[in-house]
Amino acid sequence: MNIDILLGLQWGDEGKGKIVDALSPVYDVIARFQGGPNAGHSLEFNNVKHVLHLIPSGIFHTDKLNVIGNGVVIDPAVFKKEIEELGPPVSELVKRLIISNKANLILPSHRLLDAAYEKDKGNAKIGSTLKGIGPAYTDKTGRNGLRVGDILRDNFKQIYDTHVKNHLLILKNYDFKYDIKEYESDWFEGIEMLKQFPITNTEYLVNQLSGQGKRILAEGAQGTMLDVDFGSYPFVTSSNTISAGACTGLGISPKLIGDIFGIFKAYCTRVGSGPFPTELLDETGANLRNLGHEFGATTGRPRRCGWLDLPAMKYSIIINGITKLFMTKADVMSGFETINICTAYKIDGKICNELPFNNEAIIEPIYKEFKGWTEDISGFTKFDELPASLKEYIEFIENQTGVPVTMVSVGPDRKETIFRN
Ligand code: GDP
Ligand code: IMO
Ligand code: MG
């Protein structure tokens, strides 16, 4: 039971990167289990902000091992850029980052397909990050994927060409102009970068380390409400973002899982299309966006903002089996006179506590109003110091969910983290 999981309970961007970095000192291994470069995990220390897409957020701790598991989809071009931007030389990084030979590759033509499908959908588009995620996972489950281990084969280029040829045949059906050549050259440079890192059957390693009593933290990407099975399908990503995804994405048994940390913002955000019951299209929403710097870490798109949605959060807690809650970004709401939490939905005049199957359902959120707080809490280091009205807000969430809030993040820096005893 020495593998813990940290994952998002909302629509992504809950602050996973920051918290994984802050928790890393107590772990030996940090492992990504799903998603790909659609993720943008920000973390901050010594006044410098870093954004990671594929690399686990433990990478800045020199004595930790980071694993990119089999459930992740890797774009080598993004990987190379990210490695180069990290700072330490590759000769150092190869000692602390290891990659599964079973992780699937995102091909340049997957990105083209992603863009063509989105263009074709018009107003019904998903709002994909256009990183090729959907088409890459489609090929994986359709048993047409190329995997990281394949790059070591002598005939890799030949296999690659066959895959791309097939993708370009599909693209012919779409009114979509493209130039694959430029990205392809970055991509092949990325392949050479990948080859410098240990590529192995990481499932053996992770299980071995777990058997030796090493502490492992599985880092989720996206959020539960974007899960391919349980999110607002089809406005979701293409992987299982939930705790079960850590088992399939790393090759570990559920018996080994200890804590499952659910991270949530004190309010809600969503990027891309799809239902968002508590969305605020008014000045309050704009305030949350501006004060919380709510712009995508991967695409720069403005995030849609709204109040905390308890029915959605309770759903996430059940699906994941959350044992502890971590709350981020309460500092953003300092100075708000009042704050709302959605406690139930009204659909067709009926009170409802469950998310509807139908994305077109008109949901009226039922709110409970809370008194805000005026203090700037970003310098606070102890839970007891927090303003009484914030503590009330937290207590209400705990009572409603039955899960304790054991960490409160009060700023983007790794130091701005309050652990509660
Ligand atoms: P992730 O995808 O879950 O890792 O989250 P992102 O990095 O995409 O988005 C979270 C944003 O909020 C980043 O800009 C973080 O630096 C920032 N952040 C994280 N925690 C806090 C917090 O407690 N307070 C504030 N003000 N910002 C935070
Ligand atoms: P992190 O890990 C927020 C959203 C996209 C889109 C949908 C599908 O930083 O929390 P995709 O590119 O996966 O096909 O897009 O999912 N999305 C995210 N939103 N944070 C993310 O990751 C996201 N990754 C994908 O905006 O709505
Ligand atoms: Mg993000």
What is the topology?
Layout: E1 3-8, H1 16-23, E2 29-32, E3 41-45, E4 48-52, E5 65-68, E6 73-74, H2 76-86, H3 90-93, E7 97-100, E8 104-105, H4 108-121, H5 133-141, H6 156-171, H7 181-195, E9 199-200, H8 202-211, E10 216-219, H9 243-250, E11 257-265, E12 268-270, H10 283-291, E13 304-306, E14 308-309, H11 310-320, E15 324-328, E16 338-347, E17 350-352, E18 363-371, H12 388-401, E19 405-409, E20 417-419
Parallel strand pairs: 1-10, 1-11, 2-5, 2-10, 5-7, 6-8, 7-9, 11-15, 14-16, 15-19
Antiparallel strand pairs: 3-4, 12-13, 16-17, 16-18, 19-20
Helix pairs in contact: 2-7, 4-5, 4-6
The protein binds guanosine-5'-diphosphate, 6-O-phosphoryl inosine monophosphate and magnesium ion.
Can you walk through the features of this model?
This protein has 421 residues and is α/β, with parallel strands linked by helices. 31% of the residues lie in helices and 21% in strands. Strands 9-7-5-2-10-1-11-15-19-20 form a ten-stranded mixed beta sheet, with helices on both faces. Strands 14, 16, 17 and 18 form a four-stranded mixed beta sheet that branches. It has a two-stranded antiparallel sheet with strand order 3-4. Strand 3 and strand 4 form a beta hairpin. Helix 2 crosses helix 7. The chain is globular and about 65 Å long. The two termini are 21 Å apart. The site of 6-O-phosphoryl inosine monophosphate has 24 residues, from helix 5.
